[in-house]
Design brief:
7 helices; globular; single chain
């Protein structure tokens, strides 16, 4: 999954009754997959495979043409790729086939976990939106370094480190470390600051999929661009 987020497979997702009339539906481990699409008046239907994960993550594999090179896309990026004329409303423009009819995502149960995570992202912990600690590999020594994401400044430092293909230990502005310093022990790395469970692998209490603290309007990366578009949808 994008950004290395861990998925929870032990939670119940959708009931059989909720999914039985959806075209192309498959249950695969910790996600469900269905046929989806987006219609352009000029180019027609672009189809794909939508994966819905229990932690709110949405991922579309585009199948608009044989050998499409786009790979895995967010719903907003898929909407743009399809050539949809009235883009930036992916919840309405991306559809699935329910009972033989094209139905917008917003009118199905498939956004249940996405909407839950979106609400959680806006919930405050001690007066601020909560983000768990994340890790980034150094490109020089391959050691994992911890990033604490308690403020907007810290979130930006982590965001830019992820985007830097040459990020290294000495680039950390608040911890003066080098590649010679020991890597944090694996037994310690499991503690990432979740308020629900100390050793949580990722849940709606500690995984944020986008908020005003960790997304940046002056950044042109796909993640920030998608957040800005989705916020307007």
């Amino acid at each position: 999954m994008a950004n290395g987020l861990e998925r929870e497979s032990d939670l119940a997702m959708f009931s059989d009754d909720e999914l039985k009339e959806l075209s192309g539906m498959k249950r695969v481990g910790d996600y469900v997959e269905v046929t989806c699409g987006c219609t352009s008046h000029r180019y027609g239907d672009a189809v794909g495979r939508l994966r819905v994960f229990v932690n709110g993550y949405l991922e579309i594999t585009c199948e608009c043409t044989p050998g499409c090179q786009e790979g895995k896309l967010s719903p907003a990026a898929f909407e743009k790729h399809s050539g949809r004329e009235t883009a930036r409303k992916w919840k309405n423009n991306v559809w699935v086939i329910l009972n033989g009819e094209k139905v917008p995502l917003c009118k199905t149960v498939l956004l249940k976990y996405y909407n839950q995570v979106s609400k959680t992202a806006n919930r405050s912990h001690n007066g601020r939106t909560y983000h768990r600690d994340e890790f980034v590999h150094c490109t020089m020594c391959d050691k994992l370094r911890r990033f604490r994401l308690r403020t907007r400044e810290e979130c930006r430092i982590h965001h830019d480190a992820l985007a830097d293909a040459n990020w290294k230990c000495s680039d950390l502005p608040y911890d003066k470390i080098t590649c010679d310093d020991e890597e944090e022990r694996a037994s310690r790395r499991v503690y990432r600051g979740c308020t629900r469970s100390p050793t949580c692998k990722g849940c709606t209490s500690c995984v944020c999929f986008g908020c005003d603290i960790c997304r940046f309007s002056d950044c042109s990366c796909q993640t920030c661009t998608d957040f800005t578009r989705n916020a307007k949808a």
